[in-house]
Amino acid sequence: MAATGEVVCKKSRPWRMLTGCCWWLLSMAMPATARQQEEALPAAMENTLENETAGKEAVPEDDADWQQLNAYARHRIQLNTADAAALQSLGILTPLLVNNFLTYRRLLGNLVSIYELQAVPGFDPDIIRQMLPYVKVGDDLEPHYSWYDYLHKGDHTLLLRVGWQPEKSKGYLHTDSTLPHYAGNPLKAFVRYRYNFPRRASWGVTMEKDAGEPFLKGTQRYGFDFYSAHCFIRNRGALKALALGDYTVNMGQGLLNWQSQAYSKGAAVMQIKREGEILRPYTSAGEYYFFRGAAVTLEQGIWQTTAFVSLRRLDGHVNTTDTAADMQTTTSLISSGYHRSATEMAAGGALQQLSGGANIRCNTRRWQAGANVMYHRLTPALEKPPAPYNQFDFSGQQLLSGSIDYAAAYRNVHFFGEAALSSNGKPAIVQGLLASLAPAADMAIIYRYYDKAYQSLYAKGFGDGYRTANEQGLYMAASLKMHARLRVDGYMDIFTFPWLKYRASAPSGGKEYMAQATWSPAKTRTLVLRYIFRQGSSNEVIPDNPVKVLSEITSGSIRIIWSQQCNKQWSIRSRLSGSRYASAAGKQQGWMLAQDVSWKCRAWPLGINARIAWFFTDSYDTRLYAYESSVLYDNAVSQLYGSGWQYYINLRWKVNKRLTCWARLHQTIYSGVATIGSGWDVIEGNKKTMLQCQLIHSF
Predict the structure, then answer these.
(1) Of 229, 220, 335, nearest in space to 282 by CA
(2) Which of 88, 129, 146, 677 measures 20 to 30 Å from 549, CA to CA?
(3) In Å, how far from its chain's centre is CA 104?
(4) C-alpha separations of 72 from 61, 77, 515 in Å
(5) How would you classify the pairing of strands 135-136 and 77-78?
(6) Three-class SS of residue 183?
């Protein structure tokens, strides 16, 4: 991942052709998996899902990046015409590598072969192998697509997915005199039709019903609980993007508004910059992080202008003590999207959100700068019950915010940042730097200052927590390629929280360190060693004191992963994870040992992957998170605590060129417990099972 400075080399065309031929011969030795990654999620995305699940205590439902990679596997990015936005959308290249590639192409002309990428500074074999399934080299008519091409060159896809839990939770039980707490059955259903011509056109509809929500009855007499539709056109002359229906807005470094997934601290230590196009179509099942309305981006020369407006309903608890509409208030916003019980259904769509904003930016080869503005109006107004920890949170009916963001490149260094101001006059600032110190050494630094009273609804800035407020910190990272087969990555993050936060009844702070070594003795084998140490503060019950007090805690985690492609049919992955938690109340630990196996039938279009895992943790504080293989586009992350076993089996059968089927069995067996879960989700017994089936028809 390292990168050198500006490209100044000059090569003859015959030499470039020879280079391409040599790399083509070498590619014959690459395992088949290098060309069959379209259904595998990159390791960096797996890590991001685990971290977001740990931070929010819920698995994110946004699968847009996964959909995008699969679309690129069928409609590969043309490297000879790709701009910076197209390269960034891969989620593989750092800004340094994007700049190096564009400089190389500008100085030396179009690539002759895909394997000429090895001549671009910083493009090592690992980066190239990650890119191969999604890019191509050649001359085609991509810049000259007609409206007919927009309508006919894409893929139509219909996805049908159902899942259910055989064990009945408390919320589904009833007696002769009482009805179930949940109004619907345990079936979870998801339907999505989408036409997608990557980076050109997309339209479709999405429908979802969560387990426990009614279907074709009660409050859902029209069927599904959640409906979404969109129509999106991109890159048509001066029209850079046009969105109708549901879409996301992603501006600057996420201080004002960022509704898509974004990297934070994790194994991809250099992936700290928020990148991507401002407008994107929304096609996922999540019911909170998107806008509904219209948006447009126009481009003329180096200038680009975006404007958008949205009107939609949000879930929230409304204070109904006064029936007069102008006297009602919203006490809290709800983002879970559940509408199973009478209380949840009453909160569904309880308030109206009007949003609008704009972005004006200037894009040159060396630098980019933009000005952003965002406005929200909530009806009824938001007034949270007063508490010490939330006294600086947004309350009221209107929120107006603005920001300025920039990015600039000079030789081996890439600078970026954003400064935002909310309507109460409180700031949020982030400033970052990416630098290539040597051909085998990269460095990243990012500083953030988020005022305790900074207010936003959809901010997602880089930080230790998932609230872009009440935080100051400095993050420093390095990526060193010690050897052709060994890479070492690490980061240090020092942070403070000037005001109260979740599980901290006073201002606090801490530090976190991560070190990871990746050793690849062969192209088919990889060993990853990772250790994370964290020191912070949390409210704890200490001996001889029944009241929780703020005390220092230290925690650590270790992960060892061995992956091997045995042959074209078999691959294995072994994983050992450990966690440690120490506070004034004592020391705790947790362990997980997992074995994954994947098999592809040679004679039939059939594939199976499975996992068996043993886990043991002393408490919830030493819980472990593990990404799982599931049906295509299903984000699956297990949260394990207690002790027991977990296993799953996934079956994939490609019936024909257009139809693919999946089936999945997932079960967790806990030791020494009589019930699982809490509240209305309690299950009698020590087993929890999930069954899933999915069909995807492409036409």
Answers:
(1) 229
(2) 677
(3) 30
(4) 21, 6, 32
(5) parallel
(6) coil
**Nearest 5°: CA angle at 13, between 7 and 14?**
130
Contacts of 310 (CB under 8 A, 6+ apart): 291, 292, 293, 353, 354, 355, 356
The H or E element that residue 351 is part of is strand 351-363
- 3-class SS at 460? coil
Token pair for residue 58?
């819920």
Residue ranges with strand state E in 237-350: 239-249, 279-281, 291-300, 303-319, 329-334
How far apart, in whole angstroms, are the C-alpha atoms of residue 510 and residue 265?
15
Six-digit token pair at 698? 């492409």
pTM over 0.85: yes
Which tokens hold the place of 236?
């048509």
First to last CA, the chain: 38
Residues 280 and 299: their CA atoms lie apart, in Å, by 16
CA distance 367 to 16: 30
Residue 181 identity (one-letter amino acid): H
Given a cut of 50, the residues of the chain with pLDDT beneath it are 1-38
Angle at 255 between CA 249 and CA 258, to 5 degrees: 25
What region, left, alpha or beta, does residue 551 occupy, with left being phi > 0 and alpha being psi -120 to 50 degrees?
Answer: beta
Q: How far apart are CA 235 and CA 242, in angstroms?
A: 9
DSSP string, 61-119: ---HHHHHHHHHHHS-EETTT--HHHHHTTS---HHHHHHHHHHHHHH-S-SSGGGGGG
The secondary structure of 268-298 as a DSSP string is: -TT--S--S-SEEE--SS-SSS-EEEEEEEE
Q: Residues 613, 626: contact at Cβ < 8 Å?
A: yes
Q: Buried b vs exposed e over 534-569: b needs ≥16 C-beta within 10 Å?
A: bbbbbbbeeeeeeeeebeebebbbebebbbebeeee
Instruction: List, in order, residues 6 or more apart from 15 with CB less than 8 Å away.
Output: none
The residues, any chain, with a CB within 8 Å of residue 98's CB and separated by 6 or more, are 84, 87, 88
Tell me what pLDDT residue 502 has.
83
CA dist 87 and 301 (Å) reads 20
And the tokens for 463?
């930080």
What span, in angstroms and rounded, lies between the C-alpha atoms of 382 and 368?
Answer: 36
87/436 Cα distance (integer angstroms) = 19
Nearest Cα to Cα of residue 610 among 562, 649, 552: 649
Task: Tell me the C-alpha distance between 209 and 378, whole Å.
Answer: 26
- C-alpha–C-alpha distance, residues 255 and 248, integer Å: 15
Structure tokens of 421? Answer: 């101001």
